[in-house]
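Open question from group meeting: does this chain pack into something compact, or does most of it stay loose? Before anyone orders reagents, we agreed to write out a predicted structure and look at it together. Recording both the input and the output here so the notebook holds the full record.
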Amino acid sequence: MLVSVLVTFLVVILVLYLINMLPLDGRAKQIARLVVIIIGIVSLLKFLTVF
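Structure tokens returned:
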């Protein structure tokens, strides 16, 4: 379980880093970051058996 949480956390960090590297305007980057963070939080809550 701990490994799954760490892998999920690392994937979220990697995707956020890659979003920052994309040549998008500020609003699009902000929306993409928000979506990635929400998906990451939901998946971490699934691992912690909240849902």
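Observations to bring back to the group:
The longest helix spans residues 26-47.
The radius of gyration is 12 Å.
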